[in-house]
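Why do we bother with a discrete structure alphabet at all? Because it lets us treat a fold like text: something you can write down, compare, and reason about line by line. To make this less abstract, here is a complete entry for Uricase. Read it the way you would read a sentence in a foreign language you are learning: slowly, and without expecting to understand everything at once.
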Amino acid sequence: YGKNTIKFLRLHIEGKKHFVKEVEVCTHLRLTSAQEYLEGNNSLVIPTDTIKNIVLVLAKKNGIPSLEQFAIDICNHFMTTFCQVVYVKTYVQEVPWQRLHENGVPHIHSFICVPDGIRFCEAEQCRNGPLVVFAGIKDLKLMKTTQSGFEGFYKNEHTTLPERHDRILCGELFCKWSYGECKDFDFDCIWNKIRECILEAFAGPPDCGEYSPSYQKTVNRIQMHVLSKVSQVQVIEVVLNNTFYNVLDMKNLGLTNDKEVLIPVEAPYGSCACTLGRK
């Protein structure tokens, strides 16, 4: 049991410069006994309102140096404070505020919300067990307008999809990875590096791109690139929900449409998912 959707903004000020972290936290606990379920005895139950208040107090006292460290702080607090807690899991996701720039100059206290992917993390721990930390990015929308196709697929009497050697590849990406033994990682630096790897693998070199024969191959390329560049990542899961675009037939309008006007196919949509880890 636990408390979901604990939302707050943490403001930190250094001199004249302001820093913000707006997050949503979910924290769940497992206790030594199930007596509250079986007998209606609540003597060991930490109220969910107390869970909420603990999260807010930790944000006030410790700040949010990184999402992962904040999740670790929450787990450590419950494990060290309450002997009846045998398992704690905390999920934290961040609202994507970025500092506003005016004529290239960073503003000291103004921000803009940029929907270029939502950062999240999870930390979980069993009593007498290791602390496990996951991190990720979701709702990251990506598109490339060429260097993608889908050919040579299995066909039978139900197949109507034509082969394409030049199509738009577009999708919404979810990526989650696990760390090995958590040491003094710079979680912010690692997360930014992984995001950079995702974009590099999806797009290819900026001057020419890289051909993608399928969504599946793109998913694998992302995973392999991250594992090759970021040694701290042990297992990486990628889900790519596909958005398809059909070229509009404009012959009745007396026009030839050479992939210039396309209509998005909202539903149904495809999805590719894969989890890849080191040996």
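What the structure line is telling us, in plain words: The two ends are 35 Å apart (CA to CA). The mean pLDDT is 95.
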